[in-house]
Amino acid sequence: MTLTQSLFIIACLIAASGFFAVAEISLAASRRLRLRQHADEGDLRADKVLKMQEQPGDYFTVVQVGQNGIAILGGIVGEGALSSTLTSLLILWLPESTAQSLASVCSFLIITSLFILFSDLLPRRLSMVKPEYWAVRVLGPMQLCMTVFRPIVWFYARTTDALFKILGLPDKRDERITSDDILAMTEAGARAGVLARREQQAIANIFELDSRTVSSAMTPRDRIAYFLRDDPDHVIRARIAEEPFSTYPVCDGDIDHIVGYVDAKDLFQRVLNNQPISLKDDSLIRKILIVPDKLTLAEVLDQFQQVHEDFAAILNEYSLMVGVVTLNDVMSTVMGDLVSPDDEEQIMRRDEHSWLIDGATPIDDVQRALGIDELPHDEEYETLAGFLMVMLRRIPRRTDSVNWGGYKFEVMDVDSYRIDQVLVLKLDPDAPVVGDSNGAVATQPIPTMPVAAIAAIAAAVTVDDEEATTSSAPPEPPAPSVP
Q: Where is the composition biased (Pro residues) (predicted)?
């Protein structure tokens, strides 16, 4: 065999090996969503690739048989093609034995390098860039190879299946798409500029509806504007003027005995028609949706859809009202920081290293704004105020602070035990981990003591007090003698 013939055979073997490398990587890397899109557009080859991904055993058997067979043939042909030629060249300067040994080494390195570059690295990178493009184009030749080598394919495929069963390994790819997969795709799309950051954040917020409780989006109890059933006309009008809302809960006696709600449109109609407003009129009061405070936002949306309402009262396990929530509140959670001009921002960034945050802000929003992945005892609270209470183990006061995750959370304003404003400052990396304004560590809860131990201590203190009282009392005067 001449040198030209050997080189031609080597080139054909490299091309065949490159084809199998493209076939292997393109099928494994092809995205099912993209293939499904091509199939829906009428590309029948994409549908065949999808079916091949479901049962890829025979396909990859052909790939491996082809690649290993070509590697063996390449070594045999390359050794015979280049060794003699290189030996005849090197023998002009080196002894015959040395020239033969060096020619064999050089032949091995040249053939190996050609296979690595042109049958492995180059085709694999090419197929990784556009896997779906190449998968639909190599499928036809691969099916032909599967037909030609069917006996060999059958033997190795069945042997592999038996090994999988013996070892208890899964032999099918899990094609389920999870929320994490979708979020990862949207994040990649946002980084690539295909998806706007606001759109990506809205999609992420939608998936959070299943994990966020309704209390994270509600209007808390102390901010609810409501009417009592026996409020007179002038009180109702004054409250509407002072706190204009679209919906008002109606209560009997106090806020914890809610009987329904009244729509502001019905009240306005009465005002425009110069009719008196009386909430004792049952025609004005509508039935209100009552939901427990442990529901998620997704469950609240389902209940809104079932009863065709957009307003609900939230009760805790003691049947006390803790807040109200509207459909607009839930959608505001989805839209993130897209709030209307009339709404007050709960998180205001003062500069690059400081934020002013409302104490009632959901802790998830705080973590997202500050870039904090995890907070301690996060199952015990849902708002920034709750975080401070848990960390300090008491009701926070002004100037109290907690350091965590490279940030300092300092209470700026407290109104009747309610934390109004919290100043968040970004700290230097060398700052202490956690502490309050007095320097006390607040990461761990206060240790508890058994009831028996507490009772024993209390009894000991009582005995000591009695002894101290007895020893410190002045001596009684002697009784007067009777003559």
A: 474-483
Residue ranges matching CATH 3.10.580.10 in the chain: 209-335
Q: Tens digits of per-residue pLDDT, 337-356? A: 444 434 446 788 888 888 99
Instruction: Identify residue 293 by its one-letter amino acid code.
Output: D
pLDDT digits (tens, 9 = 90+) for 440-452: 444 333 344 444 4
Residue in this structure with the two tokens 């990396």, named with its chain if needed: 429
| pTM of model > 0.90 | no
Residue 231 DSSP code: -
Which residue, 218, 390, 179, is CA-closest to 296?
A: 218
Say if CB 259 and CB 290 are below 8 A apart.
no
Please say if the pLDDT value at position 209 is more than 50: yes
The domain 344-461 is placed in CATH, from the list 1.10.260.100, 3.30.465.10, 3.30.365.10, 3.40.50.1820, at 3.30.465.10
Q: Give the contacts of 310 (CB within 8 A, at least 6 positions apart).
A: 304, 326, 327, 328
For the chain, give percent helix, strand, coil, nearest 5: 55, 15, 30
CA dihedral 298, 300, 302, 303 (to 10 degrees): 170
Q: What's the number of CA atoms in the CB half-sphere (13 Å) around residue 87?
A: 12
Of 198, 200, 223, 199, which Cα lies nearest the Cα of 329? 223
* Architecture (CATH level 2) of domain 209-335: Roll (3.10)
> Which one-letter DSSP state was computed for residue 227?
E
